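Hey,

The postdoc asked me to send both predictions to you directly instead of through the lab channel. I've kept everything plain text so nothing gets mangled by the mail client. Protein one:
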Amino acid sequence: MASVPFHYIDLRTFCYATEDEKRVTEALQYYLPEEFEVDRAESEGHYGDRIVVLSARVETADDMRHVLRRVAELDDVDRFLDELDQRVDENCSLFLSLDKQSAFNGTAAVGDGITLRAKVEAYPAKKAAAVENAREAIEGVRDDAF
């Protein structure tokens, strides 16, 4: 199986006082492998309301493939691939915002609620190389080559 050109993938979402924490956790877990541990940190909003930050860092190749397969399921994955140059920064980090409600309902969609940040391997560590590596990885899991 081919290596995955990422150092890690971070997923993060917020659970506001008006949301059910169990449901928000389930939405985040949609992108994670089974039994993957979600970190939880409590915070407070501007008006004293409770905010729970839920996050996970995926670091193994098999687990990253799982996350990438979910990303490759996006209805508009081709648009996402076309936008890679805007989604990868000069530090070789890939950013994507995913829809929390869709994830809870079992589908992948670009939207608001879940933030994905992936550190792309690139040698030399240049944006152009990172964009190409990210493109190959997404296309690879889509085509089952990874």
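Protein two:
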Amino acid sequence: MYIELHAYVDESMRIHDGLYVLAAVIVPCEYADEHRAALRALLLGKQPRLHWRDERPKRRLEITHAVAALHPNTVIVIGTRLKPAKQRRARRKCLERLLWHLTCRDVSRVVMERRSAEGNKEDLDMVNALRAREALPQDIHVEWTSPLVEELLWLPDVVAGIFARAETGDRTLEDLLSGDHLVERISCD
């Protein structure tokens, strides 16, 4: 039985630690609405979305437990030795590896958090270059959208934040995050 898989992608940068983290959470389409509902249930008051960077430690723990309950299937590419002037290069290197891993997992659609128009164009140019080299299948759909429109983009935001924190030595939340995690580290220099 074929199960359609979609991946949701976001980043976390820790420039002072020399880290660029690109995370994807793979969600079977049949569970997408269930995951969205679980994420919306975490919102407080008029909070429009979950954003890891804005959460306090106690909330981060609560969010980590809720995401762990979804048993996420993740792919995390961690770029190390990031230099502030080389952020674009780091993203390209990490994105290439991430898309390769997602292709190997038969993901049919990749939804990335929208960035600036220029940033989205750079990503699209990268996708097209990978397709031209036949390093990315023509039939994998890649798109960019806002986390205000697609709640499932909150998942990789959380995962990227947790793994960036773990990479700097605090593995407390990573240890709580059950699921299937593939982590690859690459040098960004």
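Summary for protein two, as requested: The chain has a mean pLDDT of 94.

Thanks,
C.
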